[in-house]
# Entry
Amino acid sequence: MHKGNNIEKVNGYGILECETCGFIHIDPVPSKEELDRVYREEYYMEEKPRFIERVIEDLRWWETVYDDRFEFLESRLAPGRRTVLDIGSGPGYFLKRGTERGWKCLGIEPSRQACEHARGLGAEVINAFFDDSTAASLKGRFDAVHLSEVLEHVPDPSGVLKAAYGLLEPGGILSAIVPNDFSPVQKVLTDRLNFNPYWLAPPHHINYFTFGSLSGLMRKTGFDALEQTAMFPMDFFLLMGDNYVANDELGRASHSRRKKLDIMLNEPELKGFKNELYSLMAKHNIGREMVIYGVKK
Ligand SMILES: [Zn+2]
# Structure
């Protein structure tokens, strides 16, 4: 039973600070059928959805993002342990990068077009939603599970984490990436600069995590906390006066600047600083997305 304070009302949904779940989510939580209809009506109708085109346009940057994650996993797992499941693998570039680095990769992805794109890159992908039954159909276990931008979209994030836990070998690592919402930067934006809570997007975003609530949920699932880091704080552009909210052109321009910076910070002279900078941001609950690694006991 979901209960707690209703802190906002957006698109006909309440935003509930749920005591039962331990994180903020929309109220009511949409059913699987409802969500299936929403998604089918949107991206799935287009021949080549815009999100695939944007990933391709941003590819050089995505490669640095994926390299950071693989580097972390490789630093914590023995050299023989190189199998990874990517839940919500999208157009398949995480899988491609992993394969290039010597990993054995499998993806699972509900979008048919994204799946076909990934297969065109040579990736092995199952075209399905990730749930208990698809998890049970997978043979063997993995050394790592990559769960990027999934948990905010699903009606039962705890169930997804449990299923992912069950698919990991002992000592295996989960990397969970979600938007960092209700952050100190967003608080300054709403309290001092009159921004609306623009990050609330029901029914697409069902759950709104903080570093504390996501790491708490991971611990409840059985994971030991391993490391927390962040992705570039896009909302700094808002603090600087570049209001990209509801302005796609300015949004892409801001994104382009962050890509250039991230790519340059990956140069060997700056890489150590970059890693420390982003983990320092995570300590202060700053960064547009959070990256939390947990290990299966
Ligand atoms: Zn709840």
The chain is about 45% helix and 20% strand. The CA atoms of residues 23 and 222 lie 17 Å apart. The first strand starts at residue 4 and ends at 10. Residues 2, 18, 20-21, 25 surround zinc ion (CB under 6 Å).
